Amino acid sequence: MNINQTSRFQSILKWFVPIAAVLAFAAWMYISPEGALGKLDAIGYAVCHRIDARSFHIGDRQLPLCARCTGEFYAAGLALIFQVFVSGKRSKLPSRGIIAVLVLFFLAFGVDGSNSYLYLLKQTSPGRLDQIPNLYIPNNILRLFTGSGMGIALATALYPIVNQTLWRQQEDRPALEWKSFGILIGSIIVINLLVLADSPIILYPIAYISSLGTLSLLVTVFAILWIMIMRQDNTFTSIRQLFLPFASGLTLALLMILSIDLLRLQLTGTWSGFPGLSG
């Protein structure tokens, strides 16, 4: 593809991508449940089992994501925002010590998730797996903390990769150092404790942050994928130039959410958790 063809193609995309984003958003708004929390439910519905007993509630109203996914995606969203302000265009991965902590977060997430899944299988299929002991009785406190640890790990790994892909000029420093990493972890722990206080004043914002955190991760990943496909790696010099890639990421993220929502709704007939799973 020569320079003129490339320029013409990019001009077409500048019109096509925003229109596609609007159409995808309109379709998703149309099929999703009514109300602001209903729209958030539709985001969570695409990535989370939404089992009622494994979720936090505002009164009788289930949050859009289960306890584990709430922790994971609110922490990931806040960690990305934190790094935008603290780390700028830093593009190196953290030190080995920080990576070791992130690996521990990942392992805790895996162990607690596996133990929790085994417990669920025992509840839904009595007698079949009784010979396999649970390490402990799972609970939403552990789900929240291990989920938020995983969210920190995801965002900490993703942010420098994004910078490595986007910018023509990068800052050759770790995106997170021990001081900023400690502030981030301490902030997430405080927020987790506030969530466990079960106050609507905290749970309403967390419902929004966790759902939008889910969307932000998907948009970021798809935007980076778009940039790689379009061979625009390391060509950007300002935030204003990112409109088209991130609009493309938003379009692809909404299409993915829309597709999963429609498929799951067709299979289950409900916006709630999977039928028969209530452990």
Question: Can you walk me through this structure?
Answer:
The protein has helices spanning 3-31, 36-45, 67-87, 96-124, 140-166, 178-196, 200-229, 243-268; strands spanning 57-58, 61-62, 90-92, 171-174. It has 279 residues and is mainly α. The chain has one domain (3-268). The protein has a two-stranded antiparallel sheet with strand order 1-2. Strands 3-4 form a two-stranded parallel ribbon. A hairpin with a 2-residue loop joins strand 1 and strand 2 (61-62). Helix 2 packs across helix 7 (200-229), helix 3 (67-87) packs parallel to helix 5 and helix 3 (67-87) packs antiparallel against helix 6 (178-196).
Features:
globular; mainly alpha; two-stranded parallel sheet; single chain; 279 residues; two-stranded antiparallel sheet; 68% helix
Walk me through the topology:
Elements: H1 3-31, H2 36-45, E1 57-58, E2 61-62, H3 67-87, E3 90-92, H4 96-124, H5 140-166, E4 171-174, H6 178-196, H7 200-229, H8 243-268
Parallel strand pairs: 3-4
Antiparallel strand pairs: 1-2
Helix pairs in contact: 1-8, 2-7, 3-5, 3-6, 3-7, 4-5, 5-6, 5-7, 7-8
Instruction: Tell me the fraction of residues in β-strands, as a range.
Output: under 5%
Low-confidence stretches: none
Helicity range: 55-70%
As a whole number of angstroms, the C-alpha radius of gyration is 20 Å
What is the overall pLDDT average?
A: 91
Strand order within the widest beta sheet: 1-2
Number of domains: 1
